[in-house]
Amino acid sequence: MGFYIFCDESLKKGKKYSNFYGGLLIRKEDFEWVKEALDDRLIELNLEDTELKWQNINVYRLVAYQKIIDYIFELVKQDVIKIRIMFTDNRHKPVNLNHHHKTHQYHILYYQFLKYAFGLKHLSSDKITDLEIFFDKIPDKEEKNKEFKKFIHGLQHLPDFQESKIQIKTDSIYEVDSKDHILMQCLDIVLGAMAFRLNDMHKEKPEGQRIRGKRTIAKDKLFKHLNRHIREVRPHFSINISTGIDNDQSNLFNHSFRHWLFIPKDAEFGYEGDGI
User: Fold this and answer.
1) Taking the CA atoms of the chain, what radius of gyration do you get in angstroms?
2) Is residue 275 situated within a structural domain?
3) Is position 213 within any domain?
4) For helices 182-198 and 28-44, what crossing angle results, to 10°?
5) pLDDT by residue (tens digit) across 144-173?
């Protein structure tokens, strides 16, 4: 028994919301057939030589991207994959931050995301659950990245993770190129859509123009298409708050799609400025 988690990050500083992190979890036994099915769809849509990215969406690719989202959410609805999105609200200003917090914020938030977002401590298993984690190339110094990976490796030793029997081997934490991983590319689309809508980018107009640009309209249509799928999974889904647990803590793991508004432990509310 085991899982792969593909991770990605998006907008670091937005007008309203910042620090977007995303993850996609899939059982190892399902990985190959899902990858093959997605590769087949890329060929059908004439996208086999194109990296799927939120930034690459335009009027001409809109329908193809909508069909990719259709298939991804078929898998979400069947609980073949789980998707998690984390972000911060700029109105929550962290307080009592020291130098380490400020210089390692990227890694600290990623650590919090992996520790909590998938609810792995609620995984019930009587066997070792092997976990392999894939990061898009981490944009920081090698020394800091090595320290970060040590903390990720140490998650398995936390008391909360003992019952879940999670195992993370030292050589099972990877930095990869998203061009080589279709699931990471699909995650980029979902993550980008959330950063786009939460920061009101769908309302933006080119300077001096009265109407929105075609690319902005295409992205807005794709977000709405995505949102319809999410609401089939979570009928009362709200984009800007943490997804409810339906009175059951184990749903932090069981749910196939969840949002997490990360609020620092010590934070002041009402401040429009830098997040952590």
Assistant:
1) 19
2) no
3) yes
4) 80
5) 888 989 999 999 998 888 878 899 999 999
Residue 133 domain flag: yes
In tens, the pLDDT along 72-108 reads 999 999 999 999 999 999 998 887 777 777 878 889 9
Q: b/e string for 203-223 if b means 16 or more Cβ within 10 A?
A: eeeeeeeeebeeebebbbbbb
Q: Is residue 274 part of a domain?
A: no
One-character DSSP codes across 61-111: THHHHHHHHHHHHHHHHTTSEEEEEEEEETTEEE-S--HHHHHTHHHHHHH
Q: Which residue has the tokens 């931050």?
A: 97
**Which CATH number characterizes residue 63's domain?**
3.30.420.10
Enumerate residues 6+ apart whose C-beta is below 8 A from 157. none
> Where in the sequence is the domain holding 22, given as residue range(s)?
2-269
